[in-house]
Amino acid sequence: MNTPSVVERAALATPAPLARRMRGLSDRAIAWAFIAPTMLLLLAINIFPLIWTVRLSFTNFRANRPNAEVLGVGIDNYVAILTDPDIWGPMQVTAHFLFWTITLQTLIGFTLAYLIDRKFRGHGFWTTLILIPMMLSPAVVGNFWAFIYQPQIGLFNYVVSFFTGIPPSSFEMLGSVKLAPWAIIIVDTWMWTPYVMLICLAGLRSIPDYIYEAAEVDRASAWRQFWSITLPMVLPFIMLAVLFRGIENFKMFDLVNLLTNGGPGSTTEVVSITLKREAFEKWRTGYSSALAIVLFVAVFGLANIYVKALNAVKNR
Fold it and tell me: What is the chain's alpha carbon radius of gyration, rounded to the nearest angstrom?
């Protein structure tokens, strides 16, 4: 008995006029017919705000003065951004966060994945426990760690006091110019290391067992197997995790806004906080739109270069 094709099954489940039209379509055409509305909706949601932002970036528009005359200023907003020394401070702060959060999350995430891949007793329980931080909302994490960092009753200060002898009340992470950046780095690392761990774990589980078996036959040591088999084969997954976390951390806003709001002073003011101030405190909508486009181009360009490097590693 012949099994009806996808086209025939789709035709039987549709009204007669539509069914007659679909009988002449290929499976690919039917698939596009079902996917197209969703794709058009997603494009409209993403493309329209981008086009509108680009348009505003060439004007002096202010959202708090919607009835004021909007004048075109050409590329003045972009020139002001690229020549403003106050912008480069948040750029450096963002670069500092990017370097340390990605480095720590990659090292700790890969180490955890390597240990969990050993499949020790109870590894399923510990894997679930490690994944809990990334399941929480950034708002919950920010408030949770703000309480932990609280000088008088915060658990973090008591732990540090136990090892250093410094009184907890005199040790303030979020209020210290030197310690506030590291406080945010610790929180972001705690929250997103499980994400990197999952990607690395997927890479470790994708390595065929027969490769290790052949290495054991050749009497390769565990250290040799790690450097010659494990690390090279997991490297594309590690690079993929770095790409995802780099893009997300470049846009870091929630944790910084909840924990320090860019303070003390401007020591933790990342670019996203600067963008918020320009758009919703100073109401320089045109200027902030130009800043958003500059950041988008920077992230897109760096990600494009990185993806080419990732493809080169995969095809090696």
Answer: 26
CA dihedral (115, 117, 119, 125) positive or negative: positive
Note the pLDDT of residue 122. 76
Match 């405190």 to its residue by tokens: 281
pTM, entire model: 0.84
Query: Where are the domain boundaries for CATH 1.10.3720.10 in the chain?
Result: 76-314
Q: Could you tell me the CATH superfamily of domain 76-314? A: MetI-like (1.10.3720.10)
How many other β-carbons are positioned within 10 Å of the β-carbon of residue 262?
A: 21
State the Cα–Cα distance between residues 237 and 121, nearest whole angstrom. 26
Cα gap 35→230, rounded to integer Å? 39
Compute the half-sphere exposure of residue 241: CA atoms within 13 Å on the CB side of its CA.
28
Q: Does the pLDDT at position 56 exceed 90? A: yes
Q: What is the mean pLDDT of the chain?
A: 87
Q: What is the DSSP letter of 218?
A: T
- Rounded Cα distance between 310 and 306, Å, is 6
Distance CA 28, CA 116 (A): 41
Calculate what percentage of the chain has a pLDDT beyond 90. 57
What is residue 267's three-state secondary structure?
coil
Angle between helices 180-205 and 123-135 (to 10 degrees): 130
Residue type, position 315, single letter: N
H or E stretch including 265? none
203 within 8 A of 237, measured Cβ to Cβ: yes
Show the beta-strand stretches assigned E in the chain.
none
Model confidence at 286: pLDDT above 80: yes
Residue range 177-212, pLDDT digits in tens: 888 999 999 999 999 999 999 999 999 999 999 999
**When comparing pLDDT for 171 and 20, which is higher?**
171
